[in-house]
Amino acid sequence: MDGDTITTIWLIAGITMMLSEMIVPGMVIGFLGFASVLVAGARALGIVESLGASVGLWTVTSVGLVLSLRNVAKKYFPSEEKRVSIDEDASMYGKEVQVLSDCSDANDEGRIRIQGTSWPAKTVEGTIAAGTTAKLVYRDNVAWIIEPLEVAGQLESGERPSKVPVAQTENEEAETVETPQPKD
User: Fold this and answer.
1) Structural domains of the chain, ranges and CATH numbers in brackets
2) Statement: the pTM of the whole predicted model exceeds 0.85
3) Position 181 pLDDT exceeds 60
């Protein structure tokens, strides 16, 4: 292949890559194409003659353009892509679940049923007996953290529970303490 044909190939490849940047945006292919056009120009002016020197010049120019100008170009040509943070569990918070086995705050050996699947669960505080309904608060790794439905409902409606469970150890029974009710 003669030198003019190789120069033409560099030029066509460069223009093709720059045009493809419009189809596949990313601010990389356009710089690779621009480096190809620069190599074609250097070959036409006689600065570079061999194919190896052409590939070397293209490599250095491409890497230099991408590393130095990509962030600058992205600032002036922002992407239309929007990144949205998605919390997969957010739609589950507040849902009522069936307690399958006793759940406590001491361990995650309790089980609940969510959408037909059994999951490990712990309570915010105290113990929730099997067979009752609870409310999902959040998830801690694999285990769901739940609270009794009646406490959750009272807190959401603005009511204060008349009896609040007090923290307990494994060997003690839970005791409740009367809380003063606001006077209307």
Assistant:
1) 3-76 (no CATH), 96-161 (2.40.50.140)
2) no
3) no
